[in-house]
Fold:
Amino acid sequence: MSGVNKVIIVGRLGADPETKTINSGNTVSTLSVATSDSWTDKDGQRQERTEWHRVVAWGKLAELCGKFLHKGRQVYVEGRLQTRSWEDQQGQKRYTTEIVAQTVQFLGGASERGEGASDRSQSHDFGPEPSFDGSDSDLPF
Structure:
């Protein structure tokens, strides 16, 4: 039996997306998405914890994220977890775990987008991301 690797988050962008074209000609967009959890502790005080997620979108989805998303915008992201490793310039092995987006829905109204569009959310699903060889020239950051 194969496993399931599925992630769904709804959160707000902590910064504008970083979108670029890598050496292979593919477009990649990196998003920083915050999700929050709140509860009341035993003393009756309201507590909140924010978790930051690195999200990577590829191809047409990356282009759309770069064009329409901005800091503070609420998004729904569906994808899978992926951990990558590489060697930095000092020869140290580095790791990152990220969500590879398969679907991104732009949530919120026109006032949140800062544009005159309607309040309909936009959903985009463009399939899997391309592979890359892990060399520094193809790293999406």
